[in-house]
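Q: How would the structure tokens look for this protein?
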Amino acid sequence: MPNQFHRIKRLPPYIFEEVNAAKAKARAKDIDIIDFGMGNPDMSTPDHIIEKLVETVRKPRTHRYSASRGIQGLRKAQAGYYGRRFGVKLDPDTQIVATLGSKEGFANMAQAITAPGDVVLVPNPTYPIHMFGFLLSGGAIRHLPAQPGEEYLRRLDHAVRHSIPKPIVVVINFPANPTAYTADMDFYVEVIALARKHDLFVLSDVAYAEMYFDDNPPPSMLEVPGAMDMTVEFSSMSKTYAMPGWRMGFAVGNERLIAALARIKSYLDYGAFTPIQVAATAALNGPDSVIDDIRETYRSRRDVLVDSFGRAGWEIPSPAATMFAWAPVPDPFRELGSLEFSKLLIDKADVAVSPGIGFGEYGEGYVRIALVENEQRIRQAARNIRRFLATAPETMHNVIPIGAR
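A: Here is the predicted structure in token form.
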């Protein structure tokens, strides 16, 4: 019998497991780790959403199997949201599928449209499912820059013209996880023009579309005229409504792609628990003020993080969007690499972050800091880091650089 299964062999080692093991070891010693690692919102889900869940769960009929593509009321609510937020008209019956979070949506879309050997264009660094969903489906990955702009467009055009076989899909993610880059409509127009020219599908991850901190709400790619011909967008209620454990998201857009995803899902699941779908409907149809409140919490945490870490000696670029800061590893520690630096932070500062290498090789030299601790804890982390950085020469003397091992 084989020692490893084919699909498992295609997956690289899960970098974040090493950080998780270091956190678990510290916590076993009753050490209080200030954890900025996982993008796991710590805020309470708004009351009216919880109340709708409780009301619905008391009805016995809602405990039966649900609909794999989402109940009709939920799909109508998502169509209403897209109309209000982006001015995009969607048919709830043919252009929307409810997913078990955007992660499941991406993975099952990859299963639906990828044949063995198909080439997929993915940003690097990026959220791991953007790559691994296609790897698990037998696809081959070609990398593009994570930052939008002329270089991205040039590389996209070059990759299509020089890849054999020709790519079938390009993955877009703005506001971006982990880098927090944002894109504007002019960039989206150019991407859609190239996708049309080269006969590409476009999969756009907009999970952080409501997590922005300036006066320019991130657009939807579906706002571009003609984008519906080749584009599907994936969104999530996890961050927008502080509902991460509820596992509720959406895929919307091109009817052919949505039908393919719906068909795959019909074989794999019966959809989310109906009371969760009903409560998600109440969220989408409810007041936008709850989104504003959540956004303001992240904005305040961002400001405290950038200020307090900067005064501690670690300059953090201020993210314009998302719930993450993409921070360069401090100069004295860059030779260690992001993974070893992340483990060192746990050991010496009781602070956990995500190593940039876990998001792709071009994430090396950075760490991702999630804004999932309150302001008091952020300031405490800054004090810990100040002490840690003050001992940098001593610390580096006792650490063997990766290149020397």
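DSSP finds 15 helices and twelve strands in the chain.

The chain has two domains: 6-44+290-392, 64-285.

Upvote if useful.
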